[in-house]
């Protein structure tokens, strides 16, 4: 009887709800009756809040649905529901608690409730041991704040909710603190609360006693650097700053086609292919969260103090080390005690030793004293780069030293660099390529540290690198934009030049240099052996030419002194011309940089010239005066990729177990070879199958016939066969 009544009541409430939404004034009396009924049921409910009251739940849902129609009559309805949740949240029956929460969410979506009151209540409900309720609350808070800040930032509401949410991070209830942190991270990633206040509040979770809260906060700072795919799709092709092959060729036009010119063009094509491949595969990083920290040094020191005392597992320690190293590298901090701590883990048999080496490279920058970095490099040398280790271990060690030197060139001295460069002739391919990558690095940042035979032929971009700027603590600030000396002082003339170059490139009158390969068919840039062999040959040729140019010594002392005086005068004149040219070009670059704002086309032209300078050989002593110094742009990524340290150009040979596992994995979803033969289980065996199961003495005479017979046995057998055939006939 009770079930029929409840069904009838539910049906009548649904019908009345539909009618009220169509015409609220006409059904006001019916609504009042149901509201009075709710008040009576509320008193009964408070006597036993632990049970589920179906009629009362239906009334709550009904009043929430029609709350937008009778706002004046139901102005105290949400207050009563919120008071019930505050008083009986932990003892309420789960379905009843969900009913109240959904009713409040419905009224908030209809605009009946203010966001601050409801959100603060929901954060208090996070203490309940109800996972479904926490999921409902989390989804509502994020979606509601997204709607509030959709058109413009509602700073008043955000400030109130942020202050309350920051208190929840320090709540004694671990579950409430974890969910609060999840909500704040979600709001940051959705670009709703992307400010300094939110980031620094999340950083306080790094000092929590709860390990899960600590791990979540560190993961936020380490993994926030992923760029949205939508932003990549919005970028048009016009925004691509990579110069094309035509622009590089046009920046250094030469009418005469020579073998040397062809070689330069081939290297330019390879360099462009590498830059495009690097830009395509490069991890797009945006460490906005780490950059917004107010006190990165204090955070790094506190975390390092906790790291030294913690008893957590090695994975947690490794996570903290990664975060500290990233803080040191990005903010260029000086935490000198961190490097001796890392040295204890730099051993080939250490678990995840490549990640330790990655942390060591990340924690290095140009302002770290070279003495501290040298100890780390020596530890890597003694434990990795030795003949007693395998080739893979040596490769990892050299790669780690290369990443450290890319951020701190003073980490190794000239003698140590020469010893490491000798590994380019090692018997293993991986070690050779690791040593060559280290040599290429110093060719860009400081070629004078290399031995002459490793330097290769200097280019326009690397011939006059100022070694004084590579000293510890020296600044390399410039008063102009590098490369602007190649532009015209008149911006209108620059635009006309660009248009003329485009028109000239489109013409087919032979002014463009014929290139055998198109941009899509550029050769692979990963094979460096041919390039380096050519460079070594060119260096040897230069040395031989220098020896030939030197005049043989004469016995006349006066002639020798006269030649020396003439040489000094010639060098002084050349140096004076070079200095004048450099000063003029610097003046021109400063004038252009200070007088106008460069356009996108001008920046693209500068990049094209810089790429061409990297492959254009520098002018000799007898040629025209050298152009102004153009330092190569060595892009230092804020993060050291683990693949850069573990890079193996040639995969090691797999052992037998690995090969068998690969074979068995390939056979899983593959049919057997050959034609399928349907076997009849009732069929008899063939003579061949039966012969396999016979005793050897029964088939001995047949086996013996296969043995090579003597000439006499063959005669006897032939005679018997002929006699037998004669008898038959």
List the helices and strands and how they pair.
Elements: H1 2-22, H2 28-47, H3 54-65, H4 77-88, H5 94-109, H6 115-125, H7 131-148, H8 155-169, H9 174-189, H10 196-203, H11 211-223, H12 229-234, H13 245-251, H14 259-281, H15 288-291, H16 296-309, H17 314-331, H18 338-343, H19 353-362, H20 370-383, H21 391-407, H22 414-421, H23 429-445, H24 452-455, H25 491-506, H26 529-549, H27 557-595, H28 600-615, H29 642-645, H30 656-666, H31 687-692, H32 700-705, H33 711-728
Helix pairs in contact: 1-3, 2-3, 3-5, 4-5, 5-7, 6-7, 6-8, 7-9, 8-9, 9-11, 11-17, 13-28, 14-28, 16-17, 17-19, 19-21, 20-21, 21-23
Structural features, described:
The chain is mostly helical. It is built from 33 helices and no strands. Helix 1 (2-22) packs parallel to helix 3, helix 3 packs parallel to helix 5 and helix 8 packs antiparallel against helix 9 (174-189). Mean pLDDT is 76; it is low at 1-10, 227-240, 281-286, 504-531, 546-561 and 621-635.
- Report on the biggest sheet: none
What is the share of helical residues? 55-70%
Query: Which of globular, elongated, flat, extended, rod-shaped describes the shape?
Result: extended
What is the first-to-last residue Cα distance? 113 Å
Looking at this protein, list some descriptive labels.
single chain; 729 residues; mainly alpha; 33 helices; 61% helix; extended
Summarize, please.
The chain is mainly α and 729 residues long.
């Amino acid at each position: 009887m009770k079930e029929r009544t409840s069904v009838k009541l539910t049906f009548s409430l649904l019908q009345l709800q539909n009618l009220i939404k169509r015409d609220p004034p006409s059904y006001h009396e019916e609504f009042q009756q149901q509201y009075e009924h709710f008040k009576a049921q509320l008193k009964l409910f408070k006597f036993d809040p632990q049970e589920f009251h179906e009629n009362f739940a239906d009334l709550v849902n009904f009043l929430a649905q029609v709350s937008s129609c009778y706002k004046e009559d139901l102005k105290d309805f949400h207050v009563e529901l919120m008071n019930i949740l505050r008083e009986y949240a932990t003892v309420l029956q789960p379905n009843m608690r969900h009913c109240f929460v959904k009713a409040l969410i419905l009224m908030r979506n209809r605009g009946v409730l203010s966001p601050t009151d409801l959100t603060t209540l929901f954060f208090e409900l996070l203490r309940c041991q109800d996972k479904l309720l926490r999921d409902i609350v989390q989804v509502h808070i994020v979606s509601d704040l997204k709607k509030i800040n959709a058109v413009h930032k509602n700073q008043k509401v955000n400030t109130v909710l942020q202050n309350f949410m920051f208190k929840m991070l320090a709540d004694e209830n671990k579950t409430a603190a974890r969910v609060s942190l999840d909500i704040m991270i979600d709001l940051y990633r959705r670009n709703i609360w992307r400010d300094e206040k939110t980031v620094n509040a999340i950083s306080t979770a790094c000092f929590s006693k709860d390990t899960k809260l600590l791990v979540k906060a560190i993961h936020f700072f380490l993994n926030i650097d992923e760029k949205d795919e939508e932003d990549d799709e919005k970028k048009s092709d016009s925004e691509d700053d990579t110069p094309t092959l035509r622009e590089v060729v046009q920046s250094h036009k030469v009418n005469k086609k020579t073998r040397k010119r062809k070689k330069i063009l081939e290297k330019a094509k390879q360099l462009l292919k590498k830059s495009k491949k690097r830009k395509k595969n490069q991890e797009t990083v945006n460490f906005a969260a780490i950059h917004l920290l107010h006190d990165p040094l204090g955070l790094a020191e506190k975390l390092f103090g906790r790291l030294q005392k913690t008893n957590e597992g090695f994975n947690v320690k490794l996570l903290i080390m990664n975060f500290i190293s990233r803080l040191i590298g990005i903010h260029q901090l000086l935490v000198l005690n961190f490097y001796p701590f890392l040295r204890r883990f730099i051993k080939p048999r250490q678990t995840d030793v490549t990640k330790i080496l990655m942390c060591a490279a990340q924690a290095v920058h140009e302002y770290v004293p070279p003495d501290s970095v040298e100890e780390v490099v020596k530890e890597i040398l003694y434990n990795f780069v030795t003949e007693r280790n395998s080739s893979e271990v040596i490769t990892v060690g050299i790669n780690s030293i290369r990443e450290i030197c890319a951020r701190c060139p003073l980490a190794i001295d000239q003698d140590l660099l020469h010893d490491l460069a000798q590994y380019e002739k090692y018997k293993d391919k991986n070690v050779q390529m690791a040593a060559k990558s280290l040599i290429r690095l110093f060719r860009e940042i400081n070629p004078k540290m290399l031995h002459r035979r490793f330097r290769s032929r200097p280019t326009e971009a690397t011939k006059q690198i100022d070694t004084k700027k590579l000293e510890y603590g020296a600044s390399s600030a410039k008063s102009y934009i590098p490369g602007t000396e190649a532009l015209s002082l008149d911006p209108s003339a620059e635009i006309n030049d660009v248009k003329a170059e485009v028109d000239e490139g489109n013409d087919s009158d032979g002014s463009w240099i014929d290139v055998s390969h198109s941009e899509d068919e550029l050769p692979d840039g990963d094979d460096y052996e041919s390039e380096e062999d050519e460079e070594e040959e060119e260096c040897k040729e230069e040395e031989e030419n220098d020896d030939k140019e030197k005049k043989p010594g004469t016995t006349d002392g006066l002639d020798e002194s006269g030649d020396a005086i003439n040489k000094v005068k010639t060098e002084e004149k050349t140096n004076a011309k070079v200095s004048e040219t450099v000063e003029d070009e610097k003046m021109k670059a400063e004038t252009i940089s200070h007088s106008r704002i460069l356009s996108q086309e001008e920046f693209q032209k500068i990049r094209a010239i810089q790429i061409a300078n990297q492959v254009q050989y520098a002018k000799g002593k007898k040629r025209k005066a050298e152009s102004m110094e153009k330092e190569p742009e060595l892009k230092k990524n804020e993060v050291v990729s683990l693949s850069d340290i573990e890079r193996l150009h040639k995969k090691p040979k797999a052992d037998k177990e690995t090969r068998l596992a690969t074979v068995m994995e390939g056979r899983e979803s593959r049919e057997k070879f050959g034609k399928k033969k349907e076997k009849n289980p009732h069929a008899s065996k063939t003579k061949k199958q039966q012969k396999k199961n016979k005793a050897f003495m029964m088939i001995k005479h047949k086996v013996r016939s296969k043995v090579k017979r003597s000439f006499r046995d063959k005669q006897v057998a032939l005679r018997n066969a002929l006699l037998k055939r004669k008898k038959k006939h």
